[in-house]
Structure formats: structure tokens, C-alpha cells
Amino acid sequence: MVPGDPVRAALGEGASSNPATVAAYEEKFGLNKSVPERFVVYLGNMLSGDLGTSITTGRPVADDLAKAVPATGEVAFYAIILSLAVAVVLGTLAAYRRGKATDQVVRVVSLVGLSIPTFWMAILAYNFFFLELGWVRGSGRLSPTITPPPRITGFYTVDFLLNGDSVGFFDAVSHLALPVFVLSLFTIALLTRFIRTSVLEVLDADYARAARAKGLTGPRVVFAYVLRGAALPILTMVGIAFGTLLSGTVLVEAVFAWPGLGTYAYNAAKGLDLLAVTGVGLIIGIIYLVINFVIDVLYGLLDPRVRLS
């Protein structure tokens, strides 16, 4: 239903006007078959790890995704770690000081963080921290003078450390700084508001009031009882936020020329690269399944009432 012809997009105006060339292309990629036939063929190939060939890059889609997913995963991983660390402090502090100046400031700041468009913040950060101040690197995952490390995990920071390359490690960290910072702002605001609400609910629970009645100090009640009681809903939101970071970084990756999943999906959609778009959708689905599975396992570790069978 998308306007445009993928054959014309792949061959160009000149070649697509030749019926023989079009017929040969459709025969090569199976586009002359019916949709049900193509679907069955695709499923069969997928089971063997073949997601087809991208018409945008000319390479197997599986190989492209093997490079794009770790690039996005590295940004998303550090962004969610930073976001969770900051949001737990801000959200818990706002809940503990509810109704006071600290609570009001945190709520206003988190509202501003949710309201600012991420792509706009990415442009501001790029211009200020890179072009004006020159504190960090601007585009891409590495500087042109740095050779990528031998692939072990796909995370450049980890692979450089495993290979003992401190120069490459700090260069990779410098390139990561701006994308992680921009993505963290929105996620921090989201998690802060949610953590505040979750902690407030637990603070009003009977066992929290009983702990305070026994004479336990406020910080001890928060760290020993409240945060553990609020951990399950917070964990669920963290999983959702992490999945969103992995699948929704298109605009940020475009600003920083980051060769990740978002950039790959955008280029594929722009070129009507159907197999590449399908591969991206498949990977995102797998990502959410894995995240939900991990969250379910963590539920059983955090809550003794949950029994895993």
C-alpha cells in the first residue's frame, strides 16, 4: 500500500523502463510470485538465517543488522544505565519530600524533559558541545584515524577494553557522550515521574508506616523497604523504556550520523527496501520479546511471591 514501486526504486528510472530488465529483476528476487508464495519463501529462508538481500546496500540484511543492532544497543545500554541511576535518586527524593520545594523542582524539570523534542535537543547539543566548545566528538562511532576493534561484542567501548586499546576506548566514549546524553534526558524525565509515583504508593503502605512507627529513620525505611516494594513496577517501566530506546532512535542517530538500527531503518524505508524494513521489524519484535522475558525472570528474583516453573 506504500506509494512507489520498489523495483523502480532499486533499478532507477532508466533501467526500470526496460521490460526485460524489470522481468529479470523480479525473477531474481521472487517479486513475480504471489504475496502468499513470497511469504512462505521468506519464512523458509528466515528459518535458515537468510533475511534476503538489501537493495539499498547490496548486502545480506542479516549482515547489515549484525552491524546496526550493536551500534544502537551500545547507545541504548549506556543511556538506560545513566537514566536509571539519575531517575532513582530524583524520583525517590521527590517522593520523600513530596509537596516541598524539592518535589516541585523535580516535577517541573521532569515535565520540561518530557516536553522538549529529542531531535531538537540533539541539534542543540551537537552545536553547543561539539561545534562551539569542542568538548566531545561529533559524528559517527569513531574518528577517521581510529581503526575499529576486532569484533567481540559489537560494543566498541567493550571491545577496545578487551583488546587493551585505551586510545580507541576514549575516542569511542567521546563519540558516545552526546547521543547518550540526549537520549537520557527524555528517559530520565519519564522514569523520574514514574518512580516518584511508585515510591509514593509504597510510602503509604502499611508496612512502610509500621517501619517508621518502630523508630526507623526515613532514609533507612526508603532504602530497606520502600525501594524494594516499588521495584517491580519500576522494572517494568525500565524494560519498556529500554525497548523504546533500541527501536526509536531514528532522529537522534540521524543528527549524529550514528550507523545504528534507526539510520538503517530510515534509509531502507526511504529506498522502499522491503526486505530490510521487514528485517528491522523482525529484530525489534525479538528485542521486545527478550526484554519481557528478562523482566519476568527478574520478577522472580525480586519478589519471593513469584514462582518460576
UniProtKB/TrEMBL annotation:
Locations listed in the record: Cell membrane
Keyword flag Membrane: yes
Protein keywords: Cell membrane, Membrane, Transmembrane, Transmembrane helix, Transport
Primary location recorded for the protein, binned into one broad class: membrane
Residue ranges crossing the lipid bilayer per the database entry: 75-96, 108-129, 172-191, 230-256, 276-302
Membrane topology: Multi-pass membrane protein
Family named by the database record: Belongs to the binding-protein-dependent transport system permease family.
Protein's name according to its UniProt entry: ABC transporter permease
Originating species: Microbacterium wangchenii
